[in-house]
Specification:
The protein is α/β, with parallel strands linked by helices. 28% of the residues lie in helices and 27% in strands. The strands form 3 sheets. A 6-stranded mixed beta sheet has the order 6-7-8-3-9-10, with helices on both faces. A 4-stranded antiparallel beta sheet has the order 2-1-4-5, covered by helices on one side. The protein has a two-stranded antiparallel ribbon with strand order 11-12. A hairpin with a 2-residue loop joins strand 11 (253-258) and strand 12 (261-266).
Length: 276
């Protein structure tokens, strides 16, 4: 099936009753999720809950022990996963780059699905223009010629999102994209994601995070994972509630939403209850 285009109809992503077992340990148990075009999902949970493990299945990086995973209409186990990955945008903040490429050159490597520039390969004028458009959209146009070692963590994060978008994927996967960012860089990243989603209404995305404050206002759906199991999944406002998030993290947490953005703080426990 190498070279075949993924199906354009049906869900972008379907995970059905999946288990993932490694060395006798269940990392995921009976997890299911369906992501449609234009939906933007958040995966939340404590450390070790299975968020990045599930994202790896969605990105065709691993296979389930049991259950079914369909990515862009194609079943894992029946498809060339290397070719399938070329149709996905996978953003890993720990990008394994060794050469001091410019920001623009890093974005262009999204076309070859490599970390480094491919020898004797050259982008077309149209591809250069698209790289520059995405760089500007993500707010790093002034740094397009700066080299990777001198870029801030926030600039690198936005560059990697632009890189992931170069092949025009239908599904964008973001693994803790705000890791290591200061407050200003985090907000710039979130603004960039909101702008990206507004400009590409058919794009679907899944974002892994520990922190509700890192969720863009454009988030439409959420899944809460606890110990490898799905605690809740569905529209964001129905899932990101005080009760469900508190159960997910095993701590009394009060959730609020203002101007589309979520925040969390410890919920005070009545003295009588605390003394029980």
């Amino acid at each position: 099936m190498s070279g075949a285009q993924p199906a354009e109809t049906g869900p972008v992503l379907r995970v059905a009753d999946v288990d993932l077992v490694r060395e006798g340990t269940h990392l995921l148990r009976s997890v299911s999720i369906i992501v449609q075009r234009g939906e933007h999902w958040a995966l939340l949970g404590a450390n070790g809950a299975g968020k990045s493990t599930l994202l790896g299945l969605m990105g065709a990086l691993t296979h389930p022990t049991r259950g079914e995973v369909d990515v862009l209409g194609r079943r894992l186990g029946r498809v060339d996963v290397r070719e399938l990955r070329s149709h996905l945008g996978h953003v890993n903040p720990r990008h394994p780059l060794q050469s001091p490429l410019t920001l623009r050159e890093v974005v262009l490597t999204g076309l070859t699905n490599t970390a480094e520039l491919v020898p004797r390969w050259a982008p077309s004028d149209e591809q250069l223009a698209e790289a520059d458009r995405l760089i500007d959209l993500l707010g790093v146009g002034a740094r397009r010629d700066a080299r990777w070692p001198v870029l801030s963590q926030g600039e690198r994060g936005r560059a990697l999102i632009a890189r992931a978008l170069m092949p025009s994927p239908r599904l964008l996967l973001l693994d803790e994209p705000a890791t290591g960012l200061d407050l200003a860089a985090r907000e710039q990243l979130i603004d960039g994601l909101d702008a990206l989603r507004a400009e590409h209404p058919s794009l679907a995305s899944v974002l892994v995070t520990h922190h509700l404050e890192e969720l863009p206002a454009s988030t439409t759906h959420a899944m809460l994972l606890r110990s490898g199991r799905c605690l809740a999944a569905g529209p964001a406002d129905a899932v990101l509630t005080t009760e469900l998030v508190s159960r997910c993290f095993g701590h009394p947490i009060a959730i609020s939403r203002r101007d589309g953005r979520w925040s969390a703080r410890t919920r005070p426990v009545p003295l009588a209850q605390a003394g029980q």
